[in-house]
Amino acid sequence: MKAIGLDIGTTTISAVVLDLVKKKILTVKNIRNDSAIRSDNPWEAVQDPRRIIKKAMDLLDEIIGNYPDFYAIGLTGQMHGIVYLNKGGHFISPLYTWQDQSGNQPVFDGVSVVERAKREYGLPVATGYGLATYLYHANKGLVPEGARYICTIMDYLGMKLSGRKTPLMHVSNADSLGFFDTEKCCFDLDAISAMGGDTTLLPEVTATFDCLGTFRQIPVTVALGDNQASFLGSVGVKEHVLLANVGTGGQISLLSDQYFEAPGIEARPILPDRYLLAGSSLCAGKSYEIIEEFFRAYAVAAGLKNVPQYDVMAALLSDQSTGKESLTVETTFQGTRMEPDKKGAITGIGVNNFTPQALIRGTLEGMARELYSLYEVIREGTGIEVSQVIASGNGLRKNPVLMKIFQELFQAPLILSPYEEEAACGAAISATLRDA
Question: Does 342 have pLDDT greater than 90?
Answer without folding.
Answer: no
